[in-house]
Amino acid sequence: MISQFFTPEIVIAYAILTVLTACPTYIVYLLARKRQAARPIPHFPYGVRGWLLIFVATVVLSIILTALDAANVANHMRQTTGTINWSFISPYIVVCGLYIYCLWLITFQRAAFVVKHVIVILWVVGPVSLLLLSFFFNATVANGVIIRSSIYAAIWTCYFLFSKRVACTYGTKAVDSYVEVALKMAQAQKEVKEKKK
Fold first, then answer.
1. Does residue 173 contact residue 150 with C-beta atoms inside 8 Å?
2. What pLDDT sits at residue 137?
């Protein structure tokens, strides 16, 4: 059963998907590196690296998969009806647009509002949109998909709210508490040096 996931075609597809995800993620990393952090603190991480870069990779992957889904839906409509109903394609375009906006914020902006916007985007393109599709448009959405989407949004929301890297890079209010920690660390280091003398 596991061997069906490692056929040559699937391995090639995974490799292509990995390259398609890694290249834009690396470009975001290079572009973001040129921007100064909003409130850098000595000995604290900042910049689009670490888990923040992994988040960027998940957003890039989401854009790719959403675009592929949209292409499949468009091809299916073209084959069955001969035309493309753009009302079915427009939600995919909106989701890709919001994700691209999210990447733009993370890459080029250094302000606290970035965190708020990213969190809102996470919930809007995730569980909120799935629930709207289910309740108002009678779309069939599996409960497991909604649960996975909610867990994804919740995990990354916690990361953006409590991460030292995010706080220093975008200058959120959480950085104030980290400044206090940094000052205490500096004081402790100073006391250690004085004791050595």
1. no
2. 65
